[in-house]
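FORM 12-B: Structure-to-Sequence Request
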């Protein structure tokens, strides 16, 4: 089966490479010529573990190709996926659907065979209806069906998530759409991955409901962490204590500096806008968005406290370890590190930082921050060290070296990767999240 993937970013490229690995013939299309040139030269435009080898082997096998030419790329494809970005629209927080609709127009103008058009991008309820209208208006003589197939992969573990998903959700309105999608995912049927067929609008909403629920879980445990600090409890144990209950589940209960990334912040906002438009408020999600927003700067203030407070902090130096919103990605979109660095900068603090993969993307977002070659360069002369992202590289710091290099042995661990007693025994002043 031939598949076209329009948009070759974190989702499109991983999905395209995985479909090729399942044996389909895949063309990944992107309007960004530099991305396509890199891919043709075997260079990955993003960092995702295992992606380079997967792309290389499938290109070699002749199952994966790249182009900027949409008309050529979608030719003979039975399924055409739309995997372009749906960022927050400036000003009102609605999902910006201009990229999705532009692709729909282009597909309509160039369709040269019957095909199923699949929105893999995260899109608000009703977007599939609009894509269908655009295609109908194009006057194409070919049969088409518009299907919703949201993606649930996580950056950093994207290939495993795509190949072994908890479930595949397909929102289709006719047999043509359902039959083609069954063929697309046949290799996963064999894996016994559960497939849920629903209506298109339901499928669109499932994606937002899932992300909002996960964001709620994170925000809930973050508030519990704040309470733990006040009452003298330990949030790690609270987390374990509630997570062992199967009705709750242990995942997404790690207290930290607040959720970030390319999905949760924009998707929770977009869900609020949909709820508002349909006059059906989602007050829990409203609270989650507010609480999370204020948490990021509060984390900056936590670091200022470790420096002796706002006044004492001016002119001091902080080392930030980790900048991406989570480990194993280079994605900086809405990372808590941005607000933390801004809060510190606003207070006159000098910042040096190290991140294994994210510094190139981070630098334009935090121009005053000095990017370093390794954690120890960042730590040199620092009055406090803050762990912002739990990269493995920070899990076994050489504390003797840290103590020698830093001006003061002060560690603020915003990911709870160390044991307080162990670090304090080494002579450090140590603060973390929800562990008084
Ligand atoms: P991205 O920004 O990494 O990639 C989008 C790509 O689309 C870019 O390379 C861009 O050049 C390309 N593009 C834009 N307009 C185009 C056009 N007209 N023709 C061809 N290419 C075009 O975005 P992403 O992170 O891959 O996200 C894509 C969608 O998937 C979003 O809706 C997002 O919410 C959703 N999603 C993302 C993740 C994730 O972890 N990143 C997970 C699940 C769902």
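FORM 12-B RESPONSE
SEQUENCE OUT:
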């Amino acid at each position: 089966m031939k598949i076209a993937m329009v948009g070759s970013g974190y989702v499109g490229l991983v999905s395209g490479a995985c479909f090729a690995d399942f044996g389909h013939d895949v063309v990944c299309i992107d309007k960004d010529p530099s991305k396509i040139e890199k891919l043709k030269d075997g260079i990955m435009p993003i960092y995702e573990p295992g992606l380079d080898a997967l792309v290389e082997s499938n290109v070699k096998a002749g199952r994966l190709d790249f182009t900027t030419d949409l008309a050529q790329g979608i030719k003979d494809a039975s399924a055409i996926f739309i995997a372009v970005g749906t960022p927050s629209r400036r000003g009102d927080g609605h999902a910006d659907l201009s990229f999705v609709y532009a692709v729909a127009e282009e597909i309509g103008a160039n369709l040269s065979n019957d095909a199923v058009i699949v929105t893999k991008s995260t899109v608000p309820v009703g977007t599939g209806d609009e894509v269908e209208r655009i295609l109908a208006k194009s006057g194409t003589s070919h049969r088409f069906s518009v299907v919703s197939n949201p993606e649930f992969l996580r950056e950093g573990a994207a290939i495993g998530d795509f190949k072994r998903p908890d479930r595949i959700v397909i929102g289709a309105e006719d047999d043509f759409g359902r039959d083609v999608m069954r063929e697309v995912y046949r290799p996963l049927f064999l894996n016994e991955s559960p497939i849920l067929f629903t209506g298109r609008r339901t499928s669109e909403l499932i994606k937002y409901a899932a992300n909002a629920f996960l964001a709620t879980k994170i925000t809930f445990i973050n508030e519990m962490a704040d309470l733990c600090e006040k009452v003298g409890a330990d949030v790690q144990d609270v987390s374990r204590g509630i997570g062992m209950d199967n009705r709750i589940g242990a995942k997404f209960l790690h207290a930290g500096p607040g959720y970030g990334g390319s999905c949760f912040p924009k998707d929770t906002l977009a869900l609020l806008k949909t709820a508002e438009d349909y006059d059906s408020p989602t007050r829990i999600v409203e609270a989650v968005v507010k609480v999370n927003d204020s948490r990021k700067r509060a984390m900056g203030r936590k670091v200022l406290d470790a420096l002796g407070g706002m006044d004492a902090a001016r002119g001091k130096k902080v080392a930030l370890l980790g900048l991406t919103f989570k480990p194993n990605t280079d994605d900086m979109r809405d990372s808590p590190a941005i607000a933390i660095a801004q809060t510190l900068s606003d207070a006159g603090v000098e910042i040096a930082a190290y991140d294994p993969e994210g510094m190139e993307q981070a630098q334009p977002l935090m121009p005053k921050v000095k990017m370093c070659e390794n954690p120890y360069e960042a730590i040199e002369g620092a009055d406090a060290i803050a762990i912002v992202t739990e990269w493995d590289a920070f899990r076994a710091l050489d504390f003797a070296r840290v103590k020698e290099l830093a001006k003061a042995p002060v560690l603020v661990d915003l990911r709870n990767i160390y044991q307080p007693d162990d670090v304090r025994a080494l002579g450090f002043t140590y603060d973390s999240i929800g562990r008084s």
